[in-house]
Amino acid sequence: MKVIIGGAGQVGYNIARHLALENNDVTVIDQSPDLIRRVSDSLDVQGLVGHASRPDILEKAAAGDADMIIAVTYADEVNMVACQVAHSLFDVPTKIARVRHQSYLSPLWANLFSRDHLPIDVIISPEIEVARAVTRRLEVPGAFEMIPLVDDKVKLLGVRCETGCPVLHTPLRQLAQLFPDLNIVIVGILREGKAIMPAPDDYMLAGDEVYFVVDSRMMNRALAAFGHEEQEARRLLILGGGNIGHFLAQEIEREHSWVNTKVIEGNKERAQLVAGTLEDTVVLHGDVLDPEILEEANVQQTETVVAVTNDDETNILASLLAKRYGTKRAITLLNKSTYESLVSSLGVDVVVSPRNITVSTILQHVRRGRIHSVHTLREGFGELIEAEALETSSLVGAPLKDVNLPNGVLVGAIVRNGDVISPRGNTVIQAKDRVVLFATSDAVRKVEKLFSVQLEYF
Question: What are phi and psi of 369, to 5 degrees?
Answer without folding.
Answer: 75, -155
